[in-house]
Design brief:
The structure is a single chain. With 71 residues, the protein is an all-alpha fold. It contains three helices and no strands. Helix 2 runs antiparallel to helix 3.
């Protein structure tokens, strides 16, 4: 995710506790979705998790863009 911002993500994870928390939650959801899909869980539950993950991804991107604009 956002490979072109790898350096910025590393910096933000070290300096911004909120960013780090959101980034980790996104990764945790990613793993949870894979697990749910493999176990053929309820599609509504999977879709809800995917929507939550997408919101976190949008927040991550917004923080990255804000950080880059402040430089």
């Amino acid at each position: 995710m956002f490979h072109e911002y790898r350096d910025v993500i590393t910096e933000l994870k070290q300096k911004d506790a909120h960013f780090h928390k959101v980034f980790e939650k996104h990764n945790d959801l990613d793993h949870e979705i894979v697990r749910l899909e493999e176990s053929h869980a309820d599609q509504f539950e999977i879709e809800a998790k995917k929507k939550e993950k997408l919101k976190l991804k949008d927040e991550i991107y917004s923080i990255i863009v804000k950080h880059n604009n402040e430089k």
